[in-house]
Amino acid sequence: DDLTPLGSPPLSPYDVYIPNPFNPETVFSSHLEVQQTPGDFSSVDLSFLPDELTHENKDQTVTRSENEVEENCNSRSQPSGEPLPSEQDVSLGFTSNSLSNSLAHLHWGHANSLQLSPEKSNTLPLTSITPMTPVTPVSECSGIVPQLQNIVSTVNLACKLDLKKIALHAKNAEYNPKRFAAVIMRIREPRTTALIFSSGKMVCTGAKSEEQSRLAARKYARVVQKLGFPARFLDFKIQNMVASCDVRFSIRLEGLVLTHQQFCSYEPELFPGLIYRMVKPRIVLLIFVSGKVVLTGAKERSEIYEAFENIYPILR
Amino acid sequence: MPGGGCCPDCGSTELVEDSHYSQSQLVCSDCGCVVTEGTLTTTFSDEGNLREVTYSRSTGENEQVSRSQQRGLRRVRDLCRVLQLPATFEDTAIAYYQQAYRHPGIRAARLQKKEVLVGCCVLITCRQHNWPLTMGTICTLLYADLDVFSGTYMQLVKLLGLDVPSLCLADLVKTYCSSFKLFQVSPSVPAKYVEDKEKMLSRTLQLVELADETWLVTGRHPLPVITAATFLAWQSLQPSDRLTCSLARFCKLANVDLPYPASSRLQELLAVLLQMAEQLAWLQVLKLDKRSVVKHIDDLLQHRHMLVRKAFRDGTAELESQKREPQGQEQRQGKEEAGSSSLDLSERKRPPSPALLLPPCMLKPPKRVCPPPSVSTVTGDENISDSEIEQYLRTPQEVRDFQRAQAAAQAATNVPNPP
Asked: From start to end residue, where is composition biased (Basic and acidic residues) (chain B) (predicted)?
């Protein structure tokens, strides 16, 4: 386990780190790419963009949004809590199209509360902006998408079940009433496990997406149906979603617990990871020194993404 | 027997104080009737017979508190006394126990959990006063399982909504090192192994700080790191005599339990020291290994800040730049080639390039390569074919076979064993 030194010339610590340059052009080109998706971002005003960077076919959206914003300016008085800025507030927390819509809405929500002067100068606005909320430059947006690892869902089959009969007639079922009062059934595609109770309630675990969980639950219901019970498929609900990802840098857990004491629980004597209980959205994150993050407790996929985007700047 | 006591049986005034084991009794010396006995008296009759009644038993304050809670509170006090904690800690721990007891979940818990709860209250009190007490110590004292302890501890912190500060590493080093029995000559500790406490403490602290800086402490149990650091500090203070002593023997001498991870922490710490040694010109030529580097720990610790900076480069930035700039990698490779050629020329005149400063878990190659997640096009509403479902059902013949096999298995378990 020795750290074998490389045969390269000694680099000063600052040579190796090549920060992703905060290049305004890349910001705007990707910003414009985002504009390609119809509908979602139509309420965004583009008038702060210097003229040379806007496409000709964007003029319509620009003018439309300008009109919208002018209406907003006229009709709206002081937005609640926020002082009217003399310059723009830009939230640049977006890069790729892979961000989910709800996430984009989060960021563009800031842009709506703008007070603007449509006749903005042609200088690069980024240098003249005094942001009210912290500007998240492109280099800080994570670009990492947490992968779903497990979905737990429940469904009501709405009929009393004879667990002994199910265990007898189904190959993929195990039933040990002394150990647990439910039949444990497994199917191969999607690879999941279900707990089927005599009351007719069922828990389905192991799926990697919401759709797969629903499909798997339907398959279990179909198996129960074929065994002769009048099974239905009522109140399918996703109860928990677990996702994981890797931020690719090491994290000082002790430092994190000092700055966010009210949310963090770090007991190295018990568990090597830090338990971060985020309030909004209500998600629990397990953060490890290697940079791996596990997110759990979500009922919706958007909660996972939101939680990760919230934690990423904290970890950096 | 002085005082106005009369035997209710024979009326004699000859009452003798006698003890039956630990229970003091007043016995009539004439007829042998027991006049008063430990718990079978009232305060009034006790005081009538000149027996002293303690305040807590006469005021009825404990009648509000259930017996189980009383027992728990007594255990809290006992634990505080065993650990020789200051008096204020006792009151705080008692308060926490009472606070916890108000919750129905705790009141209805098993005795094992209530016992562990005692330890949790004491631990939280110590942590809040920065008194270095480890969970391992409490579990040993309470004969409790660490799993049960951890569950109860996390539940209690959440229930009471407490902010518990982290274990203070520096204080833990001081108390833990002081428990090593190496500071006086004894039958088991020869003179050459005896060490000055202050010197050992300061050097251990420096080594622990070094370990913390080089990612050996985060995410790990703190105690094994301190054990390894203490061992290295002790060895380095007199290397000629002590290099032959192993870590296990050292702990035995010092009358301290050897935690299992301590040996791997020791290896990691030695690797870090070797990295640092390669930055010192006069140590480079010596071609140190894990045993000989111990002799030079003194020098290495003296210049540790500068050496760590030189010996390691920021691992975080390295990974990120590798991820984002593939052309940068080629650039670096180019530099490496140039470097290696110049290396041939200037035979080890320069120190080798910095290694990555990362936690050991990130330096090891990944055990298994995670396959990139496949994009699933499942909608959840697809048709489910009958054949797919039928593959999971038993045919009637299979059902009969299975039932027969089950019956046979049942019969086999029911048959009594042959004599």
From this structure: 317-338
**DSSP 3-state of A278:** strand
Question: pLDDT-based confidence at B72, cuts 50/70/90?
Answer: very high
Read off the pLDDT of residues B340-392 as tens digits, 9 standing for 90 and up: 444 444 444 555 667 788 888 888 877 777 777 677 788 888 888 889 899 99
In b/e form, how buried is each residue of B15-45, taking b as 16+ CB within 10 angstroms? beeeeeeeeebbbbeeeeeebbeeeebeeee
Q: Of residues B41 and B286, which shows the higher confidence score?
A: B286
Share the mean pLDDT of chain B.
83
Report residue B16 as tokens.
């003798």
Chain B residues with CB-CB distance to A215 below 8 A: 378-382, 384
Cis status of the peptide bond prior to A190, with omega within 30 of 0: yes
Residues composing chain A: 316
**How open is the CA angle B363-B364-B365, to the nearest 5 degrees?**
115
- Cβ–Cβ gap A211/B379 under 8 Å: yes
User: Which are the contacts of A4, defined by CB distance < 8 A and separation ≥ 6?
Assistant: B355
Which pLDDT does position A135 carry in this prediction?
52
Residue A68 pLDDT: 47
Which of B268, B342, B376 has the CB atom closest to A9's CB atom?
Answer: B342
- Dihedral sign for Cα A54, A59, A64, A67, please: positive
Considering only the beta carbons, identify the residue of A10, A248, A289 that sits closest to B361: A289
Residue B130, Ramachandran bin (φ over 0: left; ψ between -120 and 50: alpha; else beta): left
Helix (H, G, I), strand (E, B), or coil: what is residue A169? helix
* A273 neighbors A285 (Cβ within 8 angstroms): no
Q: Mutate which of A269, A274, A284 to test chain B, going by most B C-beta atoms within 10 A?
A: A269
Chain A interface test: which of B208, B392, B401, B406 (most A C-beta within 10 Å): B392
Q: Residue type at B241?
A: D
* Euclidean distance between CA atoms A311 and A289, whole angstroms: 14
Is 90 exceeded by the pLDDT of residue B262? Answer: yes
Which positions in chain A touch B165 (Cβ < 8 Å)?
261
> Crossing angle of helices B67-82/B87-101, nearest 10°?
150
**A272/B378 touch (CB, cutoff 8 Å), yes or no:** no
Per-residue pLDDT, B221: 94
In terms of C-beta density within 10 A (0-12 exposed, 13-18 middle, 19 or more buried), how is residue B265 classed?
buried
Low-confidence ranges of chain A (pLDDT < 50): 1-42, 44, 54-126, 128, 136-139
pLDDT at B316: 59
In this prediction, residues B244-272 reach a mean pLDDT of 93
Q: A148 with A209: CB under 8 angstroms?
A: yes
B340 sits in the region (left: phi over 0; alpha: psi -120 to 50; else beta) called: alpha
- Higher pLDDT residue, B150 or A37? B150
**Structure token pair of residue A57:** 């076919």
Cα–Cα distance between A236 and A216 in angstroms, integer? 11
Between the alpha carbon of residue A173 and those of residues A169, A212, B406, the distances in Å are 9, 20, 15
A185 contacts A278 by C-beta, under 8 angstroms = no
In the prediction, which pLDDT does A130 show? 53
- Asked if the Cβ–Cβ distance from B317 to A17 is below 8 Å, we say yes
Is residue B21 scored above 50 in pLDDT? Answer: yes
Contact A217, A253 (CB under 8 A): no
Judge contact between A22 and A138, C-beta under 8 A: yes
Percentage of residues of chain B with pLDDT beyond 90:
46
What are B355's strand-pairing partners? B312
DSSP state of B66: -
Q: What ipTM was reported for this prediction?
A: 0.75
Q: Which two tokens stand for residue B341?
A: 């050629």
Q: How many beta-carbon pairs under 8 angstroms link A with B?
A: 186
